[in-house]
C-alpha cells in the first residue's frame, strides 16, 4: 500500500488516481494525525508526503512526522 500525505486535496487526488490506475493500493491522509492513524493500522510499503503542513516552509512538520513513523515502522 502506498500512503500519500498532503494537505492539498488536489495533490492527493491526482497522485492517488495515477497510482490506482497503475494497479497500486493507495490510501491518503490530509495531515500528520490522519497519517499516523493509517501507519499504526497498516504498514505502508511507500509513503509520499508533503513536508509542510502549515504556512511554515521549514519542513519541520514533515520531519516530525517521519520520526513518528519510524517509531511504528522502523
TrEMBL record:
Occurrences of domain Response regulatory (ranges): 1-74
InterPro entries, sorted: Bact_response_regulator, CheY-like_superfamily, Sig_transdc_resp-reg_receiver
Residues with PTM 4-aspartylphosphate: 50
Residues in the signal sequence: none
Gene3D superfamilies: 3.40.50.2300
GO biological-process terms attached to the record: phosphorelay signal transduction system
Protein name per its UniProtKB record: Response regulator
Organism: Bacteroides uniformis
Amino acid at each position: 500500500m502506498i500512503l500519500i500525505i498532503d494537505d492539498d486535496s488536489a495533490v492527493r487526488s491526482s497522485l492517488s488516481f495515477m497510482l490506482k490506475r497503475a494497479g497500486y493500493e493507495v490510501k491518503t491522509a490530509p495531515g500528520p494525525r490522519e497519517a499516523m492513524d493509517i501507519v499504526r493500522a497498516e504498514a505502508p510499503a511507500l509513503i509520499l508526503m508533503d513536508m509542510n503542513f502549515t504556512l511554515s516552509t521549514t519542513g519541520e512538520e514533515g520531519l516530525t512526522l517521519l520520526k513518528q513513523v519510524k517509531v511504528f515502522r522502523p
